[in-house]
Amino acid sequence: NSLIMAQWREMTFLLNIMDDQTISSLYPAATFPIEFRHYLASWIEEQRWEDFSLENVEQEVPAQTLLNQSIHLLQTVAQGNVNNVVERMKLMQLSKNLLNSQRPLEFAVMVKDVLRKEKIIISEKHKLETMQQKVNSDEEDIKKLTKKVALIMEYRKKMHQLEEEFNWEKQNYECMQAIYQQNPSDMKDREMKAVMNKIKTHEFERHRLSMECKHLLRDSVEHLKKSQDNFLSALNAWRWEQHKSIIGYPFSDDLNPLQSWSEQLLVVNSSLRQELMLVHEPLSDIEEGLKALLKVLIESSFVVELQPPQVIKTQSKFSATVRYLLGETLIPGKPVTVKAQIINELQARSMGAALG
User: Fold this and answer.
1) Is CB count within 10 Å lower at the N or C end of the chain?
2) Under a CB-based contact definition with an 8 Å cutoff, are residues 325 and 264 in contact?
3) Do 258 and 241 contact (CB within 8 A), yes or no?
4) How many whole angstroms from its chain centre is CA 216?
């Protein structure tokens, strides 16, 4: 049937990124072959399979009707494949298998269950797409934050420049005072007033920039915390998706976007701490806030990229991979060495008790 319904269209895309074992478990060859799902896609999705359950034996008759229809449709599709003998014979054999091996009610419930599993898989795919969109959105957020840091740097440089000009004008004022005390002049009041006005202007502008700089620093730390919270949520979502992939859910194991995000957060944190130090202002609340964010980021960026098997047999070999997202960014020029040790259940309990 060329009129493939929306659900199967999405599934055919996902099947390309799913492993063979997962596909075989979703469409068992003996009871629900994938060819049956493919060729009868539109018809399958038009029926009301959700009404069936093994407990309702009175549904045996409508289930039998659907089974008969599916066998007839498969035979019709087979007969239509006149130019492909192999495909035609395979579909005819599938229709015979359905006729001989399926109990109507069990067949209907099985179809319902497969469609339900497909919907869950498609839903998880949409969640992954949403998460990726969120990562992209937060990358834009980081760019805005970087611009704020650049503005803080600009204000801080202007403040230092104004401070130098303020000190020079102050020295100039004091020199003029000394000169005019020895040599009184009619120009004294006007010139002294002009210099004093410059001093007041520089002092006012410096104070304004200082207040603006403090405001931007606090705003940037708050902005950084929100972005880091979003990063931690995305990282936890990645870990949860990885966990669910064990039972066949679609999963993108690409950690590069999250690594880039974590590295940018670290760079922004470092830049803000540097600016805070160069501003020469006692802003302990901002300093403590940045330290707390840095501590959480460092501790959270350790990831088990490739999980070991859920069931490990004695004397068997297996592989696992750990990854530190901050990598070389944490200590430039000195790649961080990450070591991991697998412990048994008893050791895990002991550690849990000690931490508790």
Assistant:
1) C
2) no
3) no
4) 27
